[in-house]
Amino acid sequence: MKRIIIADDHSFVRLGIIQILKDEYPGVEITEVEDGESLVNAVMKNDFDLVISDLDMPGRSGLEALEQIKQIKPGLPVLILSIFTEELYAVRVLKAGAAGFLNKNAAPYELIKAIERIGQGKKHITPEIAEKLLNNHGVNKEPHELLSNREFEIFKLLANGKTLTQVAALLSLALTTVSTHRGKIMDKLKLSTNSDLTRYAITHHIITDI
Fold first, then answer.
1. Which of 55, 101, 162, 172 sits CB 3.0–4.6 Å from 90 for a disulfide?
2. Residue 155: helix, strand or coil by DSSP?
3. What are the residues facing 102 on neighbouring strands?
4. Close Cβ partners of 207 (under 8 Å, ≥ 6 residues apart)
5. Which residue has the higher pLDDT, 118 or 137?
6. pLDDT tier at 140, thresholds 50, 70, 90
7. pLDDT attached to residue 139
8. What is the DSSP letter of 124?
9. Distance between CA atoms of 37 and 25, rounded to whole angstroms?
């Protein structure tokens, strides 16, 4: 890996990743960005061997950036890092085209192993997630697993107490679009209010108690 771009809105996280990479790959060229918009723009204008991206960033999420990167440069591998557990996001990001998913707590120990596997053209996932991917056909799915990626992002924001107007601003969407998505989310989860969304999200460990 000669050219790597890192996207994370926390500078201390980027610094930690950079140190790990430079210790293992002394000649590596590293580009840093702090949000999904900058990541997509950088990928459009430059050639990289690997993208390492956080999942939760201001504005355009890592998941949305991943989807756009795979449209722009389908062959560019993307490793997603997240504070969320594999059970919550790994299947979703892998189906969106990610080359791997890594919990941030494991990054100091697993990052180089993940990069080496990805460099060999393999996916970096646990056996449990591989099995879940094989069996991911709608049987015994939790209701929130049936949400689209966009619906899931809006669901999380609403469950965290954001208003429709705030969600629209954060995701650069029209208020009517967010409202339509909210209606679909409520239908799929069979819920009625934002308080119901919050309780559901806490129960399923999608957010912590707010």
1. 101
2. helix
3. 81
4. 156, 159, 160, 198, 201
5. 118
6. low
7. 57
8. B
9. 27
| Residues whose CB falls within 8 Å of the CB of residue 166, separated by 6 or more in sequence, listed in order | 157
What's the half-sphere exposure (Cβ side, CA atoms, 13 Å) at 137?
3
Q: Is 76 exposed, middle or buried (0-12, 13-18, 19+ CB in 10 A)?
A: middle
Q: Which amino acid is at 101?
A: F
Alpha-carbon span 114 to 29, nearest angstrom:
18
Q: Where are the beta strands (DSSP E) in the chain?
A: 3-7, 29-33, 50-54, 78-82, 100-103
The pLDDT assigned to 120 comes to 93
| Structure-token match 């590293």, residue found | 30
Please spell the DSSP secondary structure of 83-106, one letter per residue: SS-HHHHHHHHHHTT-SEEEEGGG
Q: Which residues contact 179 (CB under 8 A, 6 or more apart)?
A: 164
Give me Rg for the CA atoms of the chain: 17
2 and 28 Cβ atoms separated by less than 8 Å:
yes
Beta bridge partners of 51: 5, 78
Closest CA to 183 of 207, 147, 210, 136: 147
Amino acid letter, residue 119: G
**Nearest one of 133, 139, 72, 136 to 101, comparing CA atoms:** 133
